[in-house]
Amino acid sequence: MRRPTPTTPVPLKDSQEEADIFRRRAIFSGIIVVIAFCVLVIRYGYLQIIQYETYQTQAESNRVKLQAIAPPRGYIYDRNGILLADNRPVFTAIMNLQDVRDIDDTLKRITPIFQLSDEDISRIKNRIKIANRYDVITLKINLNEEDIARFAEVKFQFSGVDIEVKLARYYPYGELFAHALGYVGRISDKEVTQLDPSIYAGTDLIGKTGIEKYYEKILQGRPGYQHIEANAHGQVLRLLQRTAPTRGDDLTLHLDYGLQKLAQEQLGNRRGAIVAIEPSTGGVLAFVSNPSFDPNPFVNGVPSALYSYWREHPDKPLYNRASQGIYPPGSTIKPFEGMGGLHYGLVDWDFKIRDPGFYHLPGDSHMFRDWKKGGHGIVNLHRAIEISCDTYFYQLSSRMGVDRFHDWMAQFGFGQLTGIDLVNEKSGTLPSIEWKRKALKAPWYLGEMLSVGIGQGYFTATPLQVAMATAIMANKGKHITPHLLKKSEGATPYQIQNAPNGQVQFSGDASQWDLMHAAMRDVVHGRGTAGGLRRGLVGYEIAGKTGTAQVKGIKQGQRYNEKGMEERFLDHAWFMGFAPVNNPQVAVAVLVENGKHGSSTAGPIAKVVFDYVIHNMNHLPVVTTESSTQTTPSPTQDNSAGDE
Length: 644
Fold this sequence. Notes:
about 650 residues, alpha+beta, Penicillin-binding protein 2a (Domain 2), Beta-lactamase, 2 domains, 6-stranded mixed beta sheet, 24 helices
């Protein structure tokens, strides 16, 4: 029988020690809990007391959203109150950045719904790059019914994307006033960085050209704001507070709708420009550049294909011929040059020359031809204006010299900006010795002056400049600055800034201006180059001057032959004038590109403009003037000297 193995004795538990261990652990845990609780209380107090306003604002921003309200743009009216630039409501797709989690994914999914182009996507992404997280980005303006219907079906899938009704610019007469009014377009990325966000908050459009850009600050207005309560999905629950926007100031222009429409109709399909100015005020009554374009597509974002079509069209409809078109002014400058000859004492009204049909400088065999083969015989200044004798002005310009010519013609606004309230105006070229040295790095030659003296060569001008100079002539040297704006509460009074003392510095007496007016009158009512215009005139007389600007040069010994010549190489046709002669109410410049003859092409257009202004706008009584009774040839006795 085996003996039992002895076992190790088990020690008795120390209850006191275990109680001490438990007590220590309990105390430590209690301390930890108390510390954690204190930290929690302190943190809670910090958030609730010290950071109360911050978190209240964040919480409130989740519930209450601040939205900018774009101001309605000021209206633009013609002189008779006809609305030329309107605002109309359009449906606009927007994206609120703070409510969109994944912008790239949202844009990818929303593109087929709103049919966004690659150009649209690029524009949107560029705007997002410079926007803050609270901005609202415009996706597409002027949604159609199909766009709205497609989005309505899937709206729940797009948090932060919505459709709003906004006001957009609308031009009811389309291309008729496009070059004068200009247009508004979407704010570019470059413009965003330059604009005051407090003024352009919520606004997508800004003036790009014309009156819209020149008076942008007046037309824009100031935005309003509204606080709305929204749920977690961004849906509007109620309007809490609203501050209405301030609409931009309205503009009333000198332009006359009826005259503008009539003038454009007279040009028809021909390229050209017409500018009519009120001499007493400088107000522009008509401002036509033809062909034109419809500015409305620019408001919503003109399609690339349409813009390319306009830009590449051979007739250049986007080109503002009235204030940017640079042309040789031709013989329209002769009345101004004639006054310069009187001013410098180079000629008087009795000074005569014999015109054999050409002129050449002493010792030079090069012949400068008159427009009339065989010449005009004995000619004085009055007759030279009446029949537009080139040979007379070859001699006068040769004696005057280019620098004196420059200084004199500059007083009529040539070679400089007119100061009209439009953007991107061109100044043309009024040559001088210094100008040629700087521009062409070449000396001046005397023979060049002869071409300049008949409005050719280096001398170029815009139709607007010719119209302004004509108005100054009508005013007997009193300067005017052409302007489109007639009145607006937000615009300062228009200030005449050009010309010393607002008057051409002429050394002769006032009667010399009257004599030049009489010579210009005989261009139409005597035996001048525009004699055909007097037929049908009732109650007033026109003082005018025809002009033909050569497009293609002619070699020495050759004659100009327009038969068989390509249309775009034909001469430009000019007419400038004012009426009535004794009390000028309108000064007009008409240019028809490749119109061949001022008297037969541009002159009749000007006559229609004169008739409208005299009989329709001003409602003058029909009278027969004493001068017309005494000097105007009968209709059967048309002794027109030519068709320049």
